[in-house]
Design goal:
Two copies of one chain form a homodimer.
Chain A (H helix, E strand, L loop, with lengths): L3 H27 L7 H8 L3 H7 L3 H24 L5 H22 L1 H13 L1 H24 L8 H11 L1 H4 L1 H9 L5 H19 L4
């Protein structure tokens, strides 16, 4: 058993970790990921850089933890929709609209947010891969439920979840969204309309009959 | 009317242009796009660089013409399938399989081919955009034909053509194919199987009934 003293120490360590992440995220968003040094984070917290390094091995490790926390939040929102009630088609639609909205926020609303997330993507692909796997698992649960409710035709939920992910990359993959918005192929309003059109087609393909 | 002399001169100019492109493409593929200079192309042709510049303003302009010719070839193959006979679904399937195969060739079989095509993509987006528009138009013709034959449910062929293009980016967009192959998410054989799975879903979504 953990002694009350050890437990209190653990609580304090967890609280310090959390404070480091909060301050670092605020600095990454205001100064920018590249320009923020661990020394800046330490100064803002009124602690020594050595103390920050007791909790995180590097700035990159701090960003990894921030990305994990951020994606865990989005994952939680998606799970809540996936495990809700109502027709499976409506849940898939709501999940993909949310995912698209969150991607626009992560990559296109704030330049500094973009740099932070891009650094996480190139340095900590494992965090991103785990998030993608979590999304696919949530899609698969909704698809299996849709089949069980005889709303969707029988289908391998895991394979169909991958298809949903792949068919909607233009709304969730940063490179494809950028292709679209930056080359003026479509603006955000058109993107939203097109996502609904894609979902109409995909859901029609999944439905047990028309 | 063009005089016989002028016509012969035009023929010779077209033949020289064609020879420059053939030699340049061979050098780009053997030495690499970045390492080939206009002087190398001229030497190989036994002409002066100044003479090459009479036909093309720059190496980049030569590459633009090569890309145009290459994409015109693929566009022709796709049009031939699109305007063939048989069920619309089968034609869409054949077109997307061909497009995927050609993208693998362009970007993943030869490193030097990749560099050449990538240079064309960044320097001459207009050529690529025209090719994409041509593909979408070919899809739209097949979709309209499918609706006319009561094979597909009524649909806006232009919008549905865009959906087909978007849903199949994982098999045609160089960044997405690379994501997949280089991160070991899937190999080429799995990619082919997954494309068929995606086409099953999309065609089911288009069909007038199941």
């Amino acid at each position: 058993m953990t002694s009350p003293v050890a437990a209190a120490q653990e609580d304090r360590a967890a609280a310090t970790r959390r404070r480091i992440l909060e301050v670092a995220e605020a600095l990454f968003r205001s100064i920018g990921y590249q320009k923020t040094a661990v020394a800046d984070i330490a100064r803002e917290l009124g602690m020594s850089p050595a103390n920050v390094y007791r909790y995180f091995a590097s700035k990159s490790a701090i960003n990894e933890a921030i990305a994990e926390r951020l994606l865990a939040g989005i994952g939680g929102e998606l799970d809540a929709i996936a495990d809700g009630t109502g027709p499976a088609a409506g849940r898939l639609r709501a999940m993909l609209r949310l995912l698209h909205a969150r991607h626009l926020e992560l990559f296109f609303r704030e330049k500094r947010m973009h740099d932070m997330v891009s650094a996480a993507m190139s340095e900590h692909w494992g965090v991103i891969a785990a998030f993608v796997a979590r999304i696919e698992a949530a899609f698969a649960r909704v698809l299996a439920d849709g089949v069980a409710r005889a709303e969707f035709a029988p289908v391998d939920p895991v394979a169909a979840a991958r298809r949903l992910k792949q068919a909607t990359f233009p709304w969730t993959h940063p490179v494809l969204i950028a292709d679209c918005l930056e080359k003026g192929v479509a603006d955000e309003a058109q993107l939203a309309v097109e996502l609904d059109g894609m979902l109409d087609l995909l859901i029609r393909g999944l439905k047990i009959d028309h």
